Structures
1.
Amino acid sequence: MAILDELTALYPDVEVEISQDATGPLVADLHARRIDILVGASVNTDPTLARDLVRLDEAFLVVHPGSLYANRQSVRLDELRGEMFVIARETVAPGYNEALIAMCVEAGFTPKTLTSPGLVAPPEHWVVILNRPAVAIMQLEFEPVFVPLVPPRYFRIELVWRPDGETRLIDSCRAAAAAVGRRERWAIRHRSHTGYT
């Protein structure tokens, strides 16, 4: 929303129509020219699309309050090698699945996964790795517990567009995102961290 606010402030003549969905359907809409540009988390690799990194969002172990991990101050990702990870259907969030598996492989294991209809809240014996904004849109019946990963891992938040798209519109969105990034110090905030996906 900060980027959208900046876009409308810098370019008041730009008319914006917003679509909100998982990254899989949004990428399909981008290819089908139903949208011009998207802001997405962990958008799957696609060499036909152009992208700018907007920021890195910290990934957390998100658990039910009854989980054995709920009282931990932090957790190493390799400690979770025996756990069942909830992932999304490939059509919903393939980039998220790709990012999660890459994080686990970097930590030395291939995760055991369970595909859910959407990214849903875990029961006590499942675990989910997500960023705070993704959890915030869930309709949960309990207060989730966010446990930091050590070392920290990150999900990429990117602007993504077709290279043959409307240049003026794309340039306006990129300028707005860059302005917000400078003001919020998004790039500086994560520059010293390593181990992100």
2.
Amino acid sequence: MIKLLTFSTLYPSEARPNHGVFVETRLRHLVASGEAQSVVVAPVPWFPFKNKRFGSYAKFACTPREEMRNGLRVLHPRFFLPPKIGMTASPFLLAAAMIPVIQRIIRQGYDFDLIDAHYFYPDGVAAAMLGRYFKKPVCITARGTDISFIPNYSLPRKMIIWAADHAAGSITVCNALKEAMEKLGVESTKIVTLRNGVDLTLFCPIDRVKGRKELGLKQFTLLSVGNLIELKGHYLCIEAMASLPDVQLLIAGSGPDYEQLELLAKRLGVQDRVNLLGSISHANLRNYYGAADALVLASSREGWANVLLESMACGTPVIASNVWGTPEVVASHDAGILMSSRTSEGIVEAVHTLRDDYPDRTATRRYAEKFSWDETTQGQLEIFRRATGKM
């Protein structure tokens, strides 16, 4: 049995149930193997006010200090993240704040074998510092913008390389991120690609006639899922609607761009066919995936987008921008289509192409069934055993 300390600011909580759910999902499947156990340390930036008028910051304050999630003990200690200088200082502040937290965990009788960190910056860098302090091996998983974007900044890039060099191993969720890490100068033999899987029980086909009726869907329906921020490309989906008069669009997610997206739909005169749903629980997303005719993911950057497999597992093909790990997911006609360009015109073209040759929904489900968590779980266990000498 390998005893892990899972470390990441990307982890769900009672206050933010959809935040970093992909980290929790992978860990749940790992622990379910019976070969590993974990205590989760999921730090949250300190914020003093719970009033909802402070938006996402209030959710930091509302996060419980400790909770049980899916049988796992999850701690949410606070760390100070000052504005403006936060990006540079955050790994140091994060590591320093976590030392007494981890000391307390050890005193309470949980002396872990390895730190399992997720997201390279600042989390992975802080984890590498903590590994040196506590003399524990560290494995870090790269998940997307931590490698595809943050290394564009000089100091974070140097710290990411330092963390990778001092880690016992690095995991990437797609080959594109592995290649990017190699270009940064990280030794290729220390990097293993373990793609994310999909929960085939939670995400499965529904009764479409009933589901579409309950959601009031009467036209060909596109679904876009993700935080309402620029890089997710929801605005491109809305712009495409002007050239797709017989199509409706559902957007599931919350974030700072809500009002801008709402105004864009009104300005283009498509507000009657665009529905901003707000945040949808992870479990309830299945009903939207199953009722939609296609998921559209127009992101400018993605590591391994879980929403793609979730949609496919519900039998719904996808339309996706051709970026980073996405071509590794959308690799068959049964899966869906990659856009020729990440533009509203590219979305329109892809919608027409998909409708002209729409895949069989049972074939789309079968495609997703190839992506179970078993292979990923075994790959993690092999890396962790090697790092801890428990082969």
3.
Amino acid sequence: MKRILSGVQPTNKLTLGNYLGAIRNWVDLQHKAESIFCIVDLHAITIYQDPKELHDATLGVAAAYLAAGIDPVKSLIFVQSQVPYHTELSWMLSCMTPMGWLNRMTQFKDKAGKDKEKACLGLYAYPVLMAADILAYKATHVPVGEDQKQHLEMARDLAGTFNHLYGEDFFPLPEPLIQGPAPRVMSLRDGTSKMSKSDPSDFSRIHLMDSDDEIAQKIRKAKTDPEPLPDSIKGLEDRPEAKNLVTIYSALKGISLEQAVVETQGQQFSTFKPLLTDVLIDHLKPIRSEMERYLKDPAYLMTILNQGREKASAICGPVTQDVKKKIGFLGISPR
């Protein structure tokens, strides 16, 4: 049986991009494979996080998982920092990671920018911790976006390196999980940039907890062009903002982009934007309502996360202990 693993960082508020690009897909996956969904707070602190905001955002991600339909009975939900085997395995893997591999990581170059000398070690070593997250559970498949494919390749390389060093196929080589044309949601202010929680403009994104009025205002102010919507996908190719809004419409309605183009062809944005707003509100309102309900009961969320921590530790604890034995570390003798 496949074992999948994925996670979301608890930084700022979750966006429509997080939901359509990841969380919604996991709801279907939990019925097809053993599913492990982590809240990756250790990855979040590669940049400074306000302690209270990180605490609250972690509970917010847990609430979003549940509100979107992830079942804690079918799936394992836990917080990364509460399972110390992740960091323990990360150190052991880092001692097998050539510097050249890390130097090739494009995401570090993108995030560190021109001032990479001031970037923290955690950002540089991020891919090794991600590999540990995956390999600690012997995950066979990982849903990944374009920006994470290179990191998954490193996880595969590290699994292969460990297996070669110790002469055993101990770790499976995790495969990227391709689910078909998952929508890549772009910024509402720039159709060539991915919708991001870190964008300075709040009008660049839809948050899952946005009110109906906030959603309407953000769609009303979304960047567009003066032309009516085209009658073919080809007509969207050089119109990134138009393509983004039609893509969001198709994803929320559960129809193909081709069907969405047929439904909206010839419409001016003055007509299409209110239509898209209604679709967004209808889809997100019940999720927001459920998130609000869960966030009013943090004790319940902590119960779910504590149960998840215990189950996660029961899986990755023995894996980590086996790794230590193979490396040659002394075991702990019973008294």
4.
Amino acid sequence: MGPEATAAFYSGIFRIFQKRFGARYDDDYPEIIMISLPLPDVVECRGDESAIVSMLTEAAERLQSAGAEFIAIPCNTACRYLRCIEKAVSIPVLDIVEETAKRIKAGPYKRIGLLATKATIKSGIYEKCLEKYGMSIVFLGENMQEEITDIIMTILSGKKRDEDRNRLIEIIDYLAGNGADAVVLGCTDLPLLISGYTGKIRVFNTLKILSESVVENATGKA
């Protein structure tokens, strides 16, 4: 969720196996069971919450029935329903927010800029998670938040526009100039637009972080 971010997530997993473990043959990779779930809109908060929870929990049950040993969801916004998903299955469900927070706390970061959907911001899932590690969030103003939403929706439509990438970099630099020590790409579609950022501040790519966590859980090796 969305489909293109999921494709990049899957690609990220097997790239790690190639680079870290020298994977070459099909049996060098783990078995992966994938459900690309057509949820009602969660970016602009237009979906029916009960329908979203039902679809997520049913998908988790299907993955467990198919033999999955743990579940990963490459969508930050969906993690506001994580506790409901966890209750539906008896296998672990990786938390992209928690996995990201653990990476951030290993560094000298205290004030974190968050680029995410309005639903993720409103849910407070990052705020609560980072607070327990002694960190706080630098939020965008309403106008800039609307710009981030528009950029995400444009990416979801398959468009990677230079003007959006440039604006995203400007917003990251804005956060750096307004007290942020690091920035989280808290929507898995944003890394599809910007990668390899080497500007004023450390940027944490949640899609990459979750890919790394999946490999670690699949192999038992960090």
